[in-house]
Amino acid sequence: MSGEQLSLADAIAEVNPGLAETARAASPDWWSRASSAVAQLAREGKPFQAYDIVTRFGVEEPGNGAKQWGALLSAMRKAGVIEHSPTGGQPSRRPGAKGSMCREWVGTASSIREAA
Questions:
Q1: Going by C-beta distance under 8 Å and a sequence separation of 6 or more, which residues neighbour residue 7?
Q2: H or E stretch including 82?
Q3: How far apart are CA 78 and CA 62, in angstroms?
Q4: Does domain 3-115 have CATH number 2.40.50?
Q5: Residue 6's pLDDT band (cuts 50, 70, 90)
Q6: Domains in the chain: boundaries
C-alpha cells in the first residue's frame, strides 16, 4: 500500500471504518493510477463521474467496483481534492447502468487554482 493510499484511508477511518478498509484493500497500483486521474480531473474544474476515470485515463474497473470507487472518491473528497458537483448527479455514462443516476464530482477551488 502506498503512503498516499494509507494516509487517505486513515483520514476516512474515523468517519467510515468500512470504507477505510476497502481503501486499504485496493491494489496500490490501481489506487495510484486512479487517484492521479482524479487529481487531473479535479484540476480541470469540470464535473466528472467515476466512469470518466476509466474512459479518459484507461484505469481498469477495480475488483470490488462500487466499494473501491466509493472509497477512492470519498478519500479524495476528505483530502480536499474534490467535492460534490453543484449538478448533484447525472445519468450514468457507464455501459449497463441503464441511465441510473450517478454522483458527479468537481475539483475544489484549491485544486483548480493549482492548474492555473
A1: none
A2: strand 82-91
A3: 21
A4: no
A5: low
A6: 3-115
Q: CA-to-CA distance for 19 and 108, rounded, in angstroms? A: 22
Residues with Cβ within 8 Å of 71's Cβ and at least 6 positions away in sequence, in order, are: 9, 12, 19, 20, 22, 23, 26
Cell numbers 493549482 correspond to: 114
pLDDT tens-digit map of 9-68: 777 677 777 667 767 776 778 888 999 999 999 999 999 999 999 999 999 988 877 788
> At residue 96, does pLDDT exceed 90?
no
H helix or E strand, kind and range, residue 44: helix 28-44
Q: Cell match 470490488: residue?
A: 64
